[in-house]
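Lay summary. Proteins are chains of building blocks that fold into shapes, and those shapes determine what they do. In this project we predict the shape from the chain. Here is one chain we studied, written as its sequence of building blocks.
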Amino acid sequence: MAIKRLVPQARLVTLIGVGGVGKTRLAQRVAGDLRRTFPDGVWLVELAALRDPALIAQVAAAALGLRDRSAAWNVDTLAEHVADRRLLMVLDNCEHLLEASAGLAAALLRTSPGVRVLATSRQPLGLPGEHVVAVAPLSVPAAGQAAAAPADLTRYEAVNLFVERATAAAPGFTLDDHNAEAVARLCSRLEGLPLGIELAAVKMRALTPQQIVERLDERYGLLRTGTAVGEPRQQTLEALFDWSHALCSPDERRLWARVSVFTGGFGLQAAEDVCSGDGLDRDRVAGLLSALVDKSIVARVGEDGDGSRYRLLDMIRDYGRRRLAGSGEEERLRRRHRDHYQRLAERIADQWFTAEEVAAVHRLQAEFPNLRAALDFSADGHGPGQDGPDHAGLRLAASLWFGWRAVGLVREGRRRLDLLLAADRSPTPERARALVAAGWLAGIQEDHASAAAMLEEARALGTRLRDEWVLAHVAQFTGHLAMAEGDVAGAAELLERAQAAHSAAGDRVGLAITLVRRGLVVAELGDIGRACALAEEFQTLAERNSSRRLEAYGRWALSVIMWLAGDPGRADAEARHSIRLHWADDDQLGAAYGLEVLAWIAAEERRAERAAFLLGGLQQLWQRPGTPLAGHAYLAVHHRNCRDGARDALGGAAFDRAFAQGGRCGHDALMAYALEEPRQAAAAPSGPSAPSGPAGAAPELTPREREVARLVAQGMTNKRIAAALVIAPRTAEGHVEHILTKLGFTSRAQIAAWYTEQATASHAPSA
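And here is the predicted shape, written in a compact code that computers can read:
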């Protein structure tokens, strides 16, 4: 394939073509075929659902598995992050964000020589050096070949695709002398558009090829002789959508239009909440959805916490939205959609620091396309009764205050809150809480001046409204700022006040965060006994609520307290416990705090090479928030002392060598080294499928399994491995399980350590 040969050589390749021609399908196929060419992976950045061009860098960062917590996270900093990587980034559906897509691609090409960009769009990005490839439709029989023999027709791509999909829809179907002419005419009429052919093939469940082509000819002719505009191929698809729409019952049509309000995907409960009423009973929604699935209008794409999950292809959703806009129901449906996701955000907020918090993170990640759509609706000025500012938008954005951080979308949360606060200055409870949320996010970004100003306004408004939640959080977050700026005594006073307020209000989340922070501050002031008592309180709170996240941060705080108390053995044990808990939840930044403590301990114990290696690995993790120990600047002195002590002990050249080795280490391999698990990996139970030693081979691993092992060693989760290899997440999970079984291992860290020892001639410093 010419494109597959072109992509590794050219810096930017853009596939252009009409909607439905198969640009995305082709890009994914090329990316899958080239995955071995790019050692740092192949990454798909889906832009179809993105509306705000300012967020394109964040969407790309999320696709790369990065957690965005930096105020300066933009296309340039993203490009710097991958500057030394060899990877392929696929930017899919750029046409509606052409300028932003071009800006991202330009930044990557400017600073990242090992990065290649494969874009799909309806028009070129317009950058120098861009290689534009027009994606042609599938090959189809010419008009004079419609009467060709079935064997001759299989030379055409469109015919083969139709036969494949028709066989899936109607298992008894075969291409034969009786239907060959109709199939050839149908593929020609659809001009080789894959989307159109797939939609037509579904109708084989009820019709013959001849009946399909006759009905398509009729509808297509009506369209071409009417007032339709656009390219003929686009008109062909529109005709096919019209036909599919006409074959639906009135209620199925109504639901098709209504579910188009969702973005990305939706669950059954969401469909029932948003789409029922006004002539559509709630108890009929599930059956109607099943009917739309049978007609290939809606796709069932898995399950979520509420059961089955669904989505529409972009072009089918766009068709439904046009129908919804013409129905007079759009405003009402979008408002109901916004209100549903407001309730969801508030339910999720109640799950932080409970046994459900991991599920809450996953739910937020799945629903952020819909949450963004709900926020966009609010930002467009659709307030209650359309007679005032949109307090509902502020309420939704503020409800996500902890969620923005939990899923690594701090920059987006801050941006949306800033825009909503600028548009709605009414002195309402919604504004007060939004100011608190924005101030907290600004503090995480280390924009201390903005954070202080917003928190002060929130304090004044909270006092006026007598809002105890606002006042307690203002005290807490102002204490955070004081800590970050080194005012430990001031932070202690503020956090003590916040603790009392959160306790009185029964605010579990506020109390949990305050206890952890206050324990650290009290220890820094030298009151180790009081710090340990506070540590017991937050561990009790974590156990009472079965919160692994709180336990992880609490264990880290306790490791720092023990370090300050002069008990490195206890500090080491608590730091390791924290790291394991954070890593189990794929919280790399959370784990970084524990790694810091292990590096300090290594330097103090004169294991300078280990300290330097850990500091090098930490540099990868701390570059995302932009500074070591983000939010805990008063602890950075220990980071500096560790670095300076290790350099003095090793000498500059040896320190730089160990530091660079740590910086090149994959995240899972870094964790294995930090927790001193390579020995465990080498000593794994022996057996017919276990490696014979640290450098032993594992002939039982298939090439794909070795590839998955490589990505595990780079720190990728199953979801990221699936994206890199263009496979299903469950398939990636299965490969990891097979590797564990074959090697006799029990953890991903062991896989990472084993692969690192297998793949490199030079080993990391001895642990």
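What the prediction tells us: Residues 220-231, 383-389, 678-699, 760-767 have pLDDT under 50 and may be disordered.
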